[in-house]
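Extended Data, panel c. Modelled sequence:
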Amino acid sequence: MRDPLSVLTDAFTSFLFGKVETTRLPVRTSTGQAQAVYLPTAAPGLGDSGVIIGREVYSGKGYIYDPFQLYGQQLPAPHWLVLGESGNGKSALEKTYVLRQLRFRDRQVVVLDAQGEDGVGEWNLIAQELGITPIRLDPMAALDMGIRLNPLDPAITTTGQLALLRTIIEVAMGHGLDERSGFALKVAHAYVNETIVDRQPVLTDIVEQLRHPEPESAEAMNVAIDDVRAWGLDVALVLDRLVDGDLRGMFDGPTTVGIDLDAPLIVFDLSHIDRNSIAMPILMAIVGVWLEHTWIRPDRKKRIFLVEEAWHIINSPFVAQLFQRLLKFGRRLGLSFVAVVHHLSDVVDGAAAKEAAAILKMASTRTIYAQKADEARATGRVLGLPRWAVEIIPTLTPGIAVWDVNGNVQVVKHLVTETERPLVFTDRAMTEASADLTDDALHAAELEAEERAAAFVEHHLGDSESTVA
């Protein structure tokens, strides 16, 4: 019972200021019931202009992404990193993304296709559907007048040619060129470019000049001609591998006439190259520099450079340095670089950790599919993902990924149309768990994903009773 003084005070206050607000008793309820009181909200999207990816899992709304539309507003760089273990939908995402981008007239895509089956690359079916012949780099086919790319192509600047030659040699040797070997290479390259004017210079010319240097090169440095020959011996042996070794035929002649650099889709089929050999990063370097000087132009086109097995680039200091320059240069001319990697540990713990960090920093978009818990935690530390995203990555089902677009983090279900399905799920992809699902199974998988997401939220928020004022 209230004391008389309090009653008198309340009566006097009500007389002067009107009736005081009554005190509401707290309502005890659960989080499930509280959803009816506090309406659900969803994180803002990325706008409504660009390529449809799928839908955001928690809100169900459409998810649209386009680095060219977002660049300069929500994205400091248009480059994109895709991570995840095999069988979780990376391949399907890449292919549908490219197909949807090509519906815009000002888009052009180059794919380095390092995976394949039955003698062709993974992108062969899409290329055929678009009436495009892949550029198949195959040492055996090259011997029978197959595709050739010339590192000394006149379309590449003299400086670019020398940088490319150094990179090829450094990748093969596993260390940088010393000053003497670098000098021998430089004078051989300069002599070949000055004296061969009636045709394209080729690697054979460089090797021959390294073995038999001109006296003028020795006189310029006031050294013996035998010294210059000795300095260039290791360089000549490395380049000889491209001329008369296991990579012969692909780079030891003039660039093949007829490669259509104006096609909407250009596919370099590297599936015949051993992915674990030193040949792959060498190929990546040659193709990357060749494209830099022949493909990227100031013509207002938006270009996408998608690289499968991109750890061959990021894990080599010398190749990574070339691609760093390409990314910085290409950004001004409308280039979006898409790197597809299975595990981030493949690159951040490798020999090119510094270069890898620089390339990862330029990738403002990161898409992470399911990974094991330890790998997810390591990925989260490197990429700076929020804790909730790191914890949910190991629970993701095929086709669902965490998207981090310059700090805007959402969980997205990638959707494939019936028209795209035959092109996206090739024979190899059909072995993946997400590939051969029927429509009913797809629907069931989506429901399961939503239930798992809800269970995750429930686990962290709890369903204990809470007080709502």
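Residues 18 and 413 are 56 Å apart (CA to CA). This feature is highlighted in the accompanying rendering.
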